[in-house]
Amino acid sequence: MKTRKKVKQITADGFKYAFLTIMLVFAAFPLIQVVINSFKTDADVKTMPIGLPEKWVFNNYRDAWEIGGYARAYFNSFLVGGCTIVIVLTVVGLGAYALSKLHFKMRGFFTAYFFVAISLPGFLYIVPDYFFMNKIGILDTRMSLVIVYTAMQIPFNMLLLRTFLGGIPRELEEAAKIDGCNELNSLLKITVPIAKPIFLTVALLVFVNVWNEYLWSNTFIITDELKTVATRFVKFTGEYSSNMARIYTASVISILPVVLLYFIFSNKFIEGMTSGSVKG
After folding, report:
1. CA-CA-CA-CA torsion for 134, 138, 141, 147, nearest 10 degrees?
2. Are the CB atoms for 122 and 152 separated by under 8 Å?
């Protein structure tokens, strides 16, 4: 009987790992091929888009970096993303703590409001936001992107953080109050240290969304020196021709920070997404 159960377990594990391996190949192959194509010539990419290059070309990255103006674009994206993360973490941290720990009359209304905000597509606001930013004189500035990105990132992350903080026993904050802490000190000294994984997860989600965003940045930013990384592909396309090798190279340059962040913080990201309560 034990042998039969062991065989079934081995068979089930075999199917599971085979399925995961297949999914890994499907997910990784396009990314690997993009990297490989970035080392080909334009002619090689167009004649043989799949496979290894006949001759490895390494100057694509230098050319793409200079043509795309990626040094400036990186600075703009990191600056906008960093400012957005700081504001979102501050607003979401305070708001989620209030929604999960405090009792006030409008608590249910605000929770429902954020659920409704998630369901509405952001592009519905792009026209009125454009005219509003132009009216107050901040169109074509990094500030306009920070404001828009902050508003777009708050609803989902507010509910995500609220769910996590709701699992932290209220007794911990009450014990801190007995020791003389007010609500703000309780949040900073008790809640934030416990919730570090979910705060890091929120920061990563915000950064990835801001880094990859194209529509708003391409609409609100007109000056080339203020363009972000996601808008740089237009430098490599033309009406009658395009250099596919440089486009693949630009793709690698664009996604590299996101990939590196995932590999560095993947464990913390998964921990933050799967942790919904405090144990122990």
Report:
1. -100
2. yes
Contacts of 146 (CB under 8 A, 6+ apart): 80, 83, 84, 87
The answer on pLDDT for 280 being more than 50 is: no
Q: What is the pLDDT of residue 118?
A: 87
- Helix 196-212 to helix 142-166 angle (10° resolution) is 150
Nearest C-alpha neighbor of 111 from the set 59, 159, 47: 159
| 8 Å CB contact between 167 and 278 | yes
Neighbours of 181 (CB within 10 A): 17
Residues 6 or more apart whose Cβ sits within 8 Å of residue 131: none
Does the pLDDT at position 239 exceed 70?
A: no
CA distance 269 to 198: 8
pLDDT tens digit sequence for 83-130: 999 999 999 998 888 888 877 788 888 888 888 888 888 778 888 999
DSSP state of 187: I
In order, the DSSP letters of 154-175 are HHHHHHHHHHHHHTS-HHHHHH
DSSP letter string, 56-72: ---THHHHHHHHHTHHH
242 phi, psi to nearest 5 deg:
-155, 150
Residue-wise pLDDT tens digits, 64-95: 999 889 999 999 999 999 999 999 999 999 88
Q: Assess contact for 81 and 212: CB atoms under 8 A.
A: no
| Contacting residues for 186 by C-beta, under 8 A, at least 6 apart | 173, 176, 177
